[in-house]
Amino acid sequence: MASYFDEHNCQPLEEGQTPNHALHLARLLLDTGFAAEWDIEFNRFFGSDGRAPPASKEFVDKLPTHSVTPTVAAQGIKCPVCLMEFDEDDETKVLPCNHQFHCACILPWLGKVNSCPMCRQEYPTDDPQYEEYKKHKARAKQREFELSNLHDSMFG
């Protein structure tokens, strides 16, 4: 019969070592079915694959296209997606967060995900459920900010 530690692929605690309670809590939640409920809620908002939807076609079409100038090409700046330097006359797209990418790199990305690959700033989608979820998140964040300000003004 295998020992508990062999069965669970872990080592006994050394003398003076404390258990990782967060890890135990995570395992408990997973074992009790909490993960299944979380997956159901997540899939309800994001669809079955659990990812954010692609950026809206209108947003992608309105992104400005620039040609790389000789000055920028001489600086040796690289596209964050393919890690290739921008060459003179390459066509690039600039996102509202001011990150610049080769057109051939960023367009497929935005066709799958609605955020900047560098800073993760989210952009509009064509998915009404996801847009509603983003509004709900923003309202909750605003409420938290207002409560914090109210608390600080009363007790600060």
How would you sum up this structure, described in words?
- The protein is mainly alpha-helical.
- The protein contains seven helices and three strands; from the N terminus they run ααααβαββαα.
- A three-stranded antiparallel sheet has the order 1-2-3.
- The radius of gyration is 24 Å and the shape is extended.
- The chain starts with a helix and ends with a helix.
- The model has no long low-confidence stretch (mean pLDDT 84).
Strand order of the largest sheet: 1-2-3
**Tally of DSSP helical segments:** 7
The amount of helix comes to: 40-55%
Distance between the termini: 62 Å
Please state the overall shape, judged from the principal axes of the Cα atoms.
extended
Order of helices and strands: HHHHEHEEHH
Percent strand equals 5-15%
Our Rg estimate from Cα atoms comes to 24 Å
Output the structural class: mainly alpha
Mean pLDDT: 84
Query: What about the largest sheet?
Result: 3 strands, antiparallel
* Low-confidence region ranges: none
Number of strands: 3
